[in-house]
Design a protein that fits this description.
Layout lengths: L2 H11 L14 H23 L5 H5 L14
Length: 74
């Protein structure tokens, strides 16, 4: 990340999060494991937001979830 970009991120977010970049490229297997972990995390977040498991269209972003009503709890 360039110095200007790093400075802008620091000014905007401060020390609230830290980004760690690998020194060398990751292997295809490691990348697949990371993508799977990120997908599971996003799925869990969407499940919490919607109050139910998201459909494939909602998960892929094809449907705007801000206009989807959560399932009512009975």
């Amino acid at each position: 990340m360039g110095k200007k970009i790093a400075q802008n991120v620091q000014e905007k977010f401060g020390d609230r999060f830290t980004a760690v970049y690998p020194d060398k490229p990751v292997s295809a297997t490691e990348r697949a494991i990371h993508y799977e972990a990120i997908s599971k995390a996003v799925f869990q977040v969407l499940t919490g937001i919607l109050g139910r498991e998201p459909t494939e269209e909602e998960f892929s972003g094809a449907v705007d979830i801000s206009k989807v009503a959560p399932r009512r709890k009975t």
